[in-house]
Backbone:
């Protein structure tokens, strides 16, 4: 219970700060919307878009905007010396990681609420034919991506080249998550919907989430101590 309480307090702190300024949410959302709009101008011709383009563009927008959100979140912690204070507090380090992870996931979910309907509209993609499967794919994919990103963003918070190093470290490791998300979403866009394939990728995303979250909880304390 103490572990969960500390994670909740860290999450509540991040949400309260963001609700006062909307700094990271507005920046992340603007970047994601701009990314989708640029791709729509590139791919949509006379109101027609490639059938499989929507899935890839959706996950590219999520990945790129997620990288921006991760960098800005820990940049705020560095300026305020908040992360140092959290690490000095008599609290389990994995609980701090979990609270930060939940904050990033909530931020990305808020972005996806706007971006998914936008992609569906611009690319005439039937995302909502199976809303339950779509939510599962987006939720599991976002958690897997944010689990690794939160760990690396915290590890690089003191590095001068953190803005360059974060995507270099993050993208190669999260490629399986992004591929699973794209393939699973493409299965939902097939006509008819290929539910067995979508469920297969959902299962793989669940496996990736368990592995990434477990390893991140295990390695967060030694990485931050170093």
Residues:
């Amino acid at each position: 219970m103490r572990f969960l309480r500390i994670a909740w307090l860290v999450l509540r702190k991040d949400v309260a700060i963001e609700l006062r300024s909307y700094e990271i949410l507005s920046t992340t959302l603007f970047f994601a919307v701009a990314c989708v709009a640029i791709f729509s101008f590139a791919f949509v011709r006379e109101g027609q878009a490639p059938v499989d383009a929507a899935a890839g563009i959706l996950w590219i927008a999520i990945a790129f905007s997620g990288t921006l959100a991760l960098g800005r979140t820990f940049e705020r912690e560095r300026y305020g010396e908040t992360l140092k204070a959290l690490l000095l507090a008599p609290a389990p380090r994995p609980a701090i990681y979990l609270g930060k992870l939940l904050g990033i996931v909530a931020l990305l979910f808020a972005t996806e609420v706007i971006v998914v309907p936008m992609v569906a509209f611009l690319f005439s993609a039937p995302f909502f034919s199976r809303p339950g499967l779509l939510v599962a794919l987006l939720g599991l994919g976002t958690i897997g991506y944010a689990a690794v990103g939160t760990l690396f963003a915290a590890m690089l918070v003191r590095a001068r080249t953190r803005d360059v190093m974060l995507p270099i470290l993050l993208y190669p490791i999260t490629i399986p998550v992004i591929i699973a998300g794209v393939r699973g979403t493409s299965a939902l866009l097939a006509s008819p919907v290929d539910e067995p394939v979508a469920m297969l990728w959902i299962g793989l995303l669940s496996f990736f989430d368990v592995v990434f979250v477990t390893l991140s909880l295990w390695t967060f304390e030694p990485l931050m101590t170093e």
